[in-house]
DNA sequence: GCCTCCCGACTGGTATGGAAGTATGCATTC
DNA sequence: GAATGCATACTTCCATACCAGTCGGGAGGC
């Protein structure tokens, strides 16, 4: 981690440090287990320890960092059980969202989903993995929006971010082709207005990490809690 | 708010102030829209402003408080859309949990659920509303535990807390008899090992707030965002 | 060699003062 | 009387200083 953020004095320092660190963690530039030092960071970006400290507190609330009193602050390692938990919740929620969207799908809405999939294929052909992860977020977000449950996404986003950390870190490990095909299967069901099929396709899609996880865990064991 | 917490010097001050304030908010002793002051609170419990400030930050991360820069910190008002969102997620997740529990229910497990319901009836007969809300938490928590998804509860807890604020504030507004009967219907389905029935009973149970919410909103409009 | 103890260099936690922004009441002006 | 300007008393935010707990290394004793 050599980069440092450019400070904008319009918003509070603590807020900016928080956003910057969060971004660095989610992108995998700060790897699980790495140590964060209040004084080191504050010294580097030229502010006092206090705002940095407050950023740490917010990261800890997000589950992205772990503050060990009088000992140090560390990027939290990925907990397998937390990932499984996030997956379970996503499967439950997004399958319900799929049903709801399938029930109200129209031609215009289907076009919006198709546009997203087209964008995913373009990103894949450019082998732009970071962009693909962003587009994957957008696809799942669109599902919440079209279900008329925008607010649900903000909760899912927090859960999904834990899973995305895995992807950014081991960016080549997942098969984007397969994921896009699964997205397509979901959209097919939406187009047909078939709620059962949409739910089934979504559940199948969200089982995917169950396949990837052991592989990733074997390849990079120290990213995970013991 | 006249009470004040007793400080235990084993855990950090900030942590204790956070827990204390959180409890006060969830119990409805601090009502939505009320103002929080760093200096007022710190002066009252005899600590410096810093730990109080850090507690505020954590409350804001939970969505329980709102920090308006240079203006003040306020107990956040309840957002109807946030409650609806929490309800949606709970319905999706807990109906899946119900299915899973129904599939693996045995006599011993059913006894544990029955014991919870008995406790609920006792609390009701004592008209102990606070205890009843606690027991309601425990019932839904037990469901997650028996499904083997303990970690899911911690996410649900955050969502449920927003809904519980409503109950503590307008504590007489809900019909505990009806809720217990619905709990019983869920346990009946678990006893029968009938996943479909368990899911249906849970969904019906979690639709309950849809009935209560407009009534509560009409009765206490300034607890809600405009 | 091995263990124990102690010292120093860290860590996060707390206290406090001051800077900057905001709301409010009052005097002044039109 | 209505509107404007201003002093003042707040607020959060940041910087600084100090405290206490933790960890690691080296000296000394066995």
From TrEMBL, chains A, B:
Keyword DNA-binding tagged: yes
InterPro entries the UniProt entry points to = GntR_C (IPR011711), TF_FadR/GntR_C (IPR008920), Tscrpt_reg_HTH_GntR (IPR000524), WH-like_DNA-bd_sf (IPR036388), WH_DNA-bd_sf (IPR036390)
Protein origin, superkingdom: Bacteria
Gene Ontology MF term list? DNA binding; DNA-binding transcription factor activity
| TM annotation in the entry | none
Q: Which UniProt keywords apply?
A: DNA-binding, Transcription, Transcription regulation
Q: Which Pfam families does the entry link to?
A: FCD (PF07729), GntR (PF00392)
Residue ranges annotated as coiled coil are: none
Q: Under what name is this protein listed?
A: DNA-binding transcriptional regulator, GntR family
> Where in the numbering of this chain does the HTH gntR-type domain appear?
11-78
Q: Does the keyword S-adenosyl-L-methionine apply?
A: no
Q: Which PANTHER family match?
A: HTH-TYPE TRANSCRIPTIONAL REPRESSOR RSPR, TRANSCRIPTIONAL REGULATOR, GNTR FAMILY
